[in-house]
Structures are given as C-alpha cells and as structure tokens.
Amino acid sequence: MAEPGDITLLLRRWEEGDPRALDQLMPLMYERLRQLARQRLRSEPDASLNTTGLVHEAYLKLVDTPGARVQDRGHFLGLASRVMRHLLVDHARARQATKRGLGIAAVNLDEATWIPDDAVEPTIELDEALQRLAAVDERRSKILEQRYFGGLSLEETAEALHVSLATVKRELRAARAWLAVELGRDAS
Amino acid sequence: MIRAPNPGQWAELFAAFDTLVVLDDGARAERLAAIGATDPAARRALEELLEADANAGTRLGRIDAIFGAADPLAAPERRADPDVLHLVGRTITHFRVVEPLAAGGMGVVYRAIDTHLARPVALKFPLPGQRLDRQVRERFLREARAAGALDHPNICSIYETGETEDGQLFLAMPLYEGETLKARLARAGRLPIADALAIAVQIAQGLSAAHRAGIVHRDLKPGNAMILADGRAKILDFGIARVGDGTLTASHGTPGTVAYMAPEQIRGKQLDGRADLWALGVLLYEMLTGRRPFEAEYEIAIAHAIVHSNPVRPSVLRPEIWPELDAVVLGLLARHPGNRRASADAVAAELTGLESQSVPHPVRRWRAPFNPSVRRALVWGATVAVVVTTVGAGAWLLRGGAASRSTEPRIVAVLPFEALSGGDDTDYLAVALADEIATQLSRLSAVAVSGESSGAAAVVRGSVKRTGDEVRLQVELFDADQKRQVWTREYRGPVSNLLAVQRSATDGIVAALHVGVTRDERAVLMHVPTTNAQAYDLYLRGRAAQIGAASRDSSQQVASLLRAQSYYARARESDPNFAAPRASLAMSHLALVPHDRTSARRDQARLEAEAALRLQPGTPEAHEALASYWSLRGEPSNAISELERALAGRPNASHLHDLLGQSLRQLGRLDEAASAFERASRLEPRNRLLHQQAAVTYSRMRRYDEAIAHWDRAIALDSTGDPFPRMIRGQVYLRRGDVDSLDAAMRRIPLGIDRRGMTTYSHYTAHHIGRRHAEALACLDSAKVAILFDGPATSGGLLYRPVSLLRAQTLERMGNPASASSAYETASALLEDSVAAHPQAPSIRIALGLAYAGLHRRADAMREARTAMELVPVAGDAVSATAFMGGAVEIFAKLGEADAALELIELLLAMPAGREMSVPLLRLDPAFDPLRGDPRFDALLARFSRN
User: Fold this and answer.
1) DSSP codes, chain A
2) H or E stretch covering B152
3) Do residues B652 and B443 lie in contact, with contact meaning Cβ atoms separated by under 8 Å?
4) Whole-prediction pTM value?
5) Is-contact B97 B88, C-beta < 8 A?
6) Which of A60, A151, A171 is the closest to B604 by Cβ?
7) Which residues between 49 and 68 in chain A have a beta carbon less than 8 angstroms from any beta carbon of chain B?
8) Is residue B562 within 8 Å of residue B601, measured between CB atoms?
9) What is the pLDDT of residues B415-453, one digit of tens each?
10) Residue B738 three-state SS
11) Which residues pair with residue B488 across a beta bridge?
12) Within 10 Å of residue B338's Cβ, how many Cβ atoms?
C-alpha cells in the first residue's frame, strides 16, 4: 500500500512537470482515500455523505511531514478533490446499476453506505453537469468540484488553483448560477 | 438548460455576468438592454443566469445539503462547526440560543431558553441549505401542528413552531434529560427484560395515541426513542418524517434506518400504523437480545432479508425469554401487514400482560443521580463492585455549608494523588485520576478548582494503590478553615473499570462538599464518555504524560507530549467515539506549537478539537483548544466565541476568564475585559498576574483607583521584589496626579536591581515630575544601562529612551544649553543607528524625534513623529498607537508646534482607551511646559477635567 512518502515524492515530481507522475499518483490516492472513507464510516456510522474533513485527513496522513511545502498542500487538496469525485461517482454509478437489478454484488460491504440512497442520482447529475461546465470554463468547474467533492474552503481552493481568494469568490458565484440553471428543472 | 451559445462565447458571458451581478437594478437593466440590442440570445442567457443567482441558495439547497457545502455567499467559512446555523448567543423570537446539542440527518437541535417562561427548551431546525418551497413549508407546519396537538406522556410534545427573521422554520420542544434508546443500547447491549418491556409498552401507548390522530411515524428507531431520568419513554421526531415524502431529510439514506423499515416500506407500498408496529418489533427484539432481527454486511442485503427471510427466535438468543414473549415479538415482525397486530392499543395491552409475568423484581428505570450506592450499581453495570469500605469520622459539613447558597463559588484545591504501590502502573493513575476528578469538579458552577492549596476553602487529597486486578482510590476532604480532615472514603474497583471508580469518587466528593448542583450539571457528571475500558485507560496514560510534560524542561517536554499523543491515538483506535482524547490531543498539539510553529501544527489542533465536538458537542477542552487556535491565528473575536462556549462547561476556570479578558482587550472591549479579569482574579486570588491584567486594563480606561488597587495586590503577592509592577504603578500614580504616592513609591524601590532600567526610570520619573532636576541627573548618571527598556522586545516596545536623551532634556531644563546640545548629539547618533537597525519600531523613532527637537532640527523631528504614528494605525492596536501619539505630542510641544500638539492631545483625551494622556499628567509633566499659557491648552484641560 502507498506510503506517505510515495505520495509526496510523486506530488513533487508532478509539480516539477513529470506527467507520468500523475498517472501513478491518482490510483494511489484513490486507494488511500477509499481506505480513509471506509475508516471514517466505521467510526462515525451515522455520517451521511460528507467529504469535509476526509480530504484534509488525507492530507494530514499522506503529505503533512516536516518537509512538506506550502505549495504541496494546495496541489494535494486539488488533486484529492478530483480523486474524491472519481471515487464517489464510480460508487454512485455502481449503486445505480444495482438498483436496476444488475446484481447485488456490484457494490460491496460498507461502501454501500457511503452515499445515502437519495444522493445517488444527484451525485451523478452533479458530475455530468461539471463535465459540461469544464468544456466551457475549466477553472469554474474545478472550483465547484473542489467545493462539493473535496469539501475545500474558499481559501484552500484559492491555494489549489493559484488564484486570489477574490477570484475564487467571484468565479464561484457565476459557477453556482450556472449549476443552478443546469440542475434547475426541479426546484428541490 | 441554457441554450448553449457556442463554447467560445461563454468566456464573454461569464465576464458579463460578473459585471452585471454587482450592479444595482437600474444600471443592470440598462446594460442588459444594451447587450440585447446586438445579441438577444446572450441577453436571455444572462437573464437566466442572473435569475438563478438570485435563487441559488434555494435551488442548490439540496445538493448543498447532500455534500455538506453551505452557500458560500451566505455564511462565513467555518467547517465542521457544531453551531452549524451560527445561532449560539442569538435570540430567536423569544428564545435565547445557548448551545448546539446535535446535528444529523434529522436536522439541527439547539438548547435554548424560553425567555418568556424562563424554561429550557430544545429548538429544532431543518438542515442548513434546505430552504423549503411554499408547499413543503405548509406541510411542515401542518404536520408540526398535528404532532403538537398530540398530548401524550410518551410522545415528545412540541411547544410551538416558529420562524426566524430570515424565514427559517423551527420547532420548540421540551428539553429532555435522559438518553436515547440508541445510546442505552450502545452502552448496555441488551436490557433487562422488565426494562425492555416497560419501554416497549410506553412506545406502544404513544403510537396508539398518534395512530388515533391519524399520524404515522414512519421512522421509528432507537435514535428516535428517548428514555428519561424518571424512566418514561418518549418518541421523538413524530410526524415530521412524513413531510416531503422523504425528500426533505437525507437521513432516510443513512445506515441503520433500513434495519427498521417494514417490508411494505421497502417495497415502496402505502404505509399505515402497522409499519410503526413493525419498527416497534425490531426495537423490542433489539432490546431483548442485543441484536437486530435482520443484520447483514450491507444495506441491500438487509433489505433483502427483511423482505424475504425470517428472523431467529429471540428465545434462541436469550433463553430467559418465554414462549408468549417470543410470540409477541415475532407477531410484530410478521412480514405481511395483514398478519400483524393492527392496533397499537392491543399491543400495549399484551405487553403489559407480559410485564406482570416477568421475573418479579422491581422495574429498574434509569435513575437520576444522588441516591449514591444504589445508583452506582445500576449505572456502572453489575460487573463493577464499587464498595464503600470506610466512612470517615467527623462532621460532614464543611464550615460555611451555607456557601452552597451563596453566589461565589467555593475554591477547592485538588492536589495530585499519592501513588502508594510503586511502579509505572500506579504513577500514571495517581496523576490522571486526580486530574479527571478536578476536571469533573470544574464543570460545577458552585466550585472553582485550583491547583494549589493556598487560598482554597477545601482541599481534596488522595492516594492510589493497585494490587493485582484491583484499584483502591482513597480520597479525603480537608477543610482549610477548620484545619482538619472532614471526610474520607475509599473506593475499590476492578482495573478494568477505572471510569466507575473515578466517577464514584467524584460523586462522593461532590456530595461531601455540600454544594448545589444543577440538573444540567448532574447530567454532565453522569455522562459516560466511553464504555471501553482500554480506551479510558490509554486516555489516562496520555493525560499523565501530558500533565507531566509541563514540569519538565524543554527537550523532555516534547518527548512527553509526543508520548501522550500516541496514547491518545491508541485510545481513539479502541473507541473512536470517545471525545476526550481528541480534545486532549488538540491541547497537546497546541502545547507543541512553541516547538513547531508551522501552521500545520495548529491546524491539527483544530481538526482534533472539531472532531471532539462532533463526538461530544460542548466539550469545554475542545472549545478551549479552538480558542487558542484562533488566538494564534490573530482572530480574537473567534477566540472569544470559543472561550464563551468553553466557559459554559467550565464556568469557574480562571485561566479561561484570563484568556477571555485578553481577547476582549485586544478588540478594545475594555469594560468587558476588566470584568473578565476581575472574575479571574476572584477565582484565583493568589495569582498576581491576574491582578496585573486587571490593573493594566483599568489603567487604559483611566480608572486609576481600581488599577492601583490591583497593582497593590499584585505587588503584595510578589516575593521577588520585581521592579516592574512598582514602576507601572508609579506611572499610574502620575497619571492620577498623585505625586506624593509617586514619591513614596520611588523611595521604596531599592536602587540595586535595574532590570532594563526600570528602577532608574522610576526614580527619574519621580524627580522629573517633582522638578528636582539635579537629583534626576544624578539618578541618570548612576544608571546601569545605556538605554532604558532596550531588549529583545525593542521593535515592539512602547518606550525606548536612551539615558543620553533624558540627560540632554534634564540638562536643558537646568539651563545648561551647551551640555544639553552635546548630549542631544550623542543621543541622536545612537538613535540614528538604532533606527537603521529597527526601521519599523515606532518607539525608537519617537526617541529620535525628541533628540532632533532638542537640536532644533524641526523638519527631521516632525518626520520622525509622523512616521512613528503611521507605523501603528489606531485600528490595528489601540494601545500601542496611543503610546506613540503621546510621544509625538511631546515632540510637537518641544518644537512649539502648538496646533499639532493640541489636536493630538484632544484626540487622546477623548479616547476611552487613551491611558497615555490624562489631565493631571498634562498639568504635571514638564514636557508640556511649552504649551502652558496657550489659552487653548487651558481650555482643553478644563473641558476634560469635568469628566
């Protein structure tokens, strides 16, 4: 399993411009975040979907070492939000498949409890909406991704995207309006 | 969906949106019209976006709630804050919100006080981000009214529904003291049969009343059943579950709820009261056997089992269950609703019949404390034999038992216990158990816990002995007035249940102290933080290591703290729901901050504190940790909120009042700060630093008499002869215009010690004010330092005076211009170097300005004065700024710049926190001589004298 050191190393390499580092980094983080989510659920079985804290916990466990630099944190949180999104969307799609009777075993164990039933559809809808947004404005899409899937604060989003807090706030507003329209058919 | 103009156009559209969204209606309409003239499609798209923006909070409400992301434009960024709706301290209609109690899928619950009826209530709000549209709101209200109309002892009543100023609905309900069935099951596993039946009967009776009124609960589960102190059972969340048909709360998806759903519910069919009865069957099964009838590793399998399979007979899991009881339970769990009992009434009757068949010992209900020996056996479980072996002779009553009726808390010292058996196995217990008891006592408003016996009315002492599997804790109460032991008792218990031993001892001490304990405090004392013995033991080891760290030197401190952290981590692994180790972990991180100043370190403290609060809202130590965190971040208002919450749980912790005072002072809330320091010093009267804090705060408000009173006490408590408090007190005498006291004080300060020139300065000031210039000069000549108040704090210091400068000024006043001039030259050369070394230090520039003024270098002097003031804007730090403004006045006066001087003087006199300037000072200090005779100066003094 990934050691914290591996991830920091890969993070550095990626920052330095090595594209292959990202390919190795993602699956490692995917697995680690999945573990953390499972642990989190075991200790707080009543938690409904709430990524707040998970991504931060991952940061503390995987990257926060004496040698870690400030930039590492921003990068990590941004990446972790993306990974978290993949995790949750994959999971939601599997649940959807299960509901349609394509086999109970499609979703295993306590992972079944990550997302409440009535959050499965919205998760997928959100993901699809964000994909559409990314096609026209990548940064706004990332801001929403980090906000929803990563549970990042405004400051952290600014850190991750290397922009000012004011920019994040401004762009977030338009992004939310766009999202409200996209999801907007039912007011609930 | 917005008709997509080509992708390239989005960049422009967003840019236009950014501009439009901040315009007012008129300007916006104009711009839109202009855009629409050339590109109607763009205009439509923008209008759609703008409209969405106006309603984003509502329209994204659901997705926000699902992902726990609040509307960023509404609430300030605070993640994982137990006060999710930021209501603490606010008054909503006629309720004053005190603290958050719980937050979860069902909504957010706060404790509040009904200010009309002066009673505590619980306020329940829907989840944040769930703004309800009109139809849903109306249904919420209708159902709430229906549930409110249900007046039955086994249904949680609703006092009223209400609406906040921003249109958020809430319910006001009675605040019940007790535990949920869920907590009880978690704690006790399975219940005694009689208890299980007693609870089930009551729930059935409650259901009966509701069903008769046409209301189906639909979400009955252990988390929704409450068992009160007197044994009554109440059903919560009644009828609300019906609103919105499941789209309202996200809780329907949380694990555990499926387990209580009836088969027809899972199949999505129409529901009636029989679904509630099914849930009752599951509850009864669980209470009787400690297990659920349908369990599997994942939700879907549970659902499958509910719909398709038969549960194991309860009697198989618990042989005492007799056939009729079996039958009733299985009857409730009949898969087809037609085969189930239809009437809750009938069920209640059957269960009552069974109750009388059960083993005839009295039904034991969850009892509120204060029937000591009986309660202990019940609450701590039958496996713990806590035996009271010795009762001390002598009167129980502490003298002044009437103190429990007075409003001042009694100061009780808890000294570390002695370890009677040797070895590491006992040492940690001695330290940690004493600490735990002290912590418990600190929850009481009638008691102020102290760490040292001087000044305490009562002292708790004790010893710990460990033999094999048993722990013996002997505690005694020593009355300071009577100078004797008034109570002692020994508690024995198994090593595997240290918590019971500790709690029993605490109860005994509280009883022996004869202080008043409120119902809320009783509940807190009774709260069981963990049922995992290993976790508690590890936590105690951690506490001992952390407490031990304080008395070690720096290098060992870190090692001890890290060891403590590792114990806490292990405690957390044993019981992830145990909040105390998380809070202590947060404090340990903060203790490491001096050794590790990265932001990550304090962030970890915050995370742990927040985790602790999620597990156990209101934990004072966690709030204290958050307060320290915010202090480190330079956010005193947040620190203040957290301190207030910490104080709610530890009302008489003097250090919390001290920290509160400091934060309030930073914000300029001096009156409140002074009260906080007063409170702190009353709770810890031997602590001179607290008196110092109070004194400094009063000084700033020009309440000199009170300041001096506190300085007097601080000096009386100091055995080291530290010149600092005496010097500052002298300055206060001066500003009060009390020259005689100033002189007398000076005479009492021996010339020997001259730390940072404080003694010299004290003597110099007295002579200077008395216009005894020759003595002043002599004093300066014998100074042991070249610069008064120089030191590592130079750049932040308020006063910086080279002796040469003071000599120059004194010589000038003595009418010796030539020597004065040469002294001024020396001073300015020295100061120019200092300024070059510390360009940001306003105090040095003031000194330089004074030197330039002495050399008649007007422009240079003015420049230094202005620079000094610009370096510390008033808003940033009110106290520092006034000190430098006072210095600038001196410079202006010396230069003959009367206008500038008077303007500043007026400003300083008018400022409430303008300690530097007072009318007596202006009258007395020779520095202001150049202004005397100017009618404006006299007018100012006259005007402000009247206050």
Assistant:
1) ---HHHHHHHHHHHHTT-HHHHHHHHHHHHHHHHHHHHHHHHH-TT--S--TTHHHHHHHHHT-STT--HHHHHHHHHHHHHHHHHHHHHHHHHHHHHHTTS-GGGS-GGGGGSS-GGGHHHHHHHHHHHHHHHHH-HHHHHHHHHHHTS---HHHHHHHHT--HHHHHHHHHHHHHHHHHHTTTS--
2) none
3) no
4) 0.49
5) yes
6) A60
7) 49-53, 56-57, 60, 64, 68
8) no
9) 989 988 878 888 999 999 999 999 999 999 999 998 888
10) coil
11) B476
12) 8
Across the interface, whether the CB atoms of A149 and B67 are under 8 A apart is answered: yes
Q: Apex CA B234: angle with CA B230 and CA B237, to 5°? A: 150
CA distances from A45 to A30, A110, B64 (A): 21, 10, 21
Taking contacts as CB-CB distances below 8 angstroms, the residues of chain B near A123 are: 66
A158 and A165 Cβ atoms separated by less than 8 Å: yes
Residue type, B290: G
Q: Which two tokens stand for residue A63?
A: 């990257």
ipTM value for the complex: 0.83
Alpha-carbon torsion, ordered B608, B609, B613, B618, to 10 deg: 160
Residues B683 and B457: beta-carbon distance below 8 Å: no
What are the CA-CA distances from residue B673 to residues B202, B677, B679, B686, B705 (Å)? 51, 6, 10, 19, 17
Hey, what are B298's tokens? 């994942």
For the stretch A94-119, pLDDT in tens is 777 766 665 444 445 445 556 777 77
Q: Are strands B458-467 and B410-414 parallel, antiparallel or unpaired?
A: parallel
The residue whose two tokens read 């909406």 is A129
**A59 neighbors A75 (Cβ within 8 angstroms):** no
b/e sequence B488-507, b meaning 16+ C-beta within 10 Å? bbbbbbbbbbbbbbbbbbbb
Chain B interface test: which of A63, A88, A123, A136 (most B C-beta within 10 Å): A136
Query: Tens digit of pLDDT for each residue in B45-82?
Result: 899 899 888 888 778 877 887 776 666 555 443 344 56
Cβ proximity of B217 and B378 under 8 Å: no
Residues of chain A contacting B252 with CB distance shorter than 8 Å: 116-118
Q: Can you give B295-352 as a three-state secondary structure string?
A: CCCCHHHHHHHHHHCCCCCHHHHCCCCCHHHHHHHHHHCCCCHHHCCCCHHHHHHHHH
Give the pLDDT band (50/70/90) at residue A69.
Answer: low
DSSP run (H or E) holding B939: helix B935-945
- Burial profile B82-95: b = 16 or more Cβ within 10 angstroms, e = fewer: bbbbbbbeeebeeb
A124: contact with B, CB 8 A cutoff: no
Cα–Cα distance for residue pair B39/B41, rounded to 1 Å: 5
Give the active site residues of B.
Answer: 219
Q: Nearest CA to A81 among A41, A139, A12, A30?
A: A30
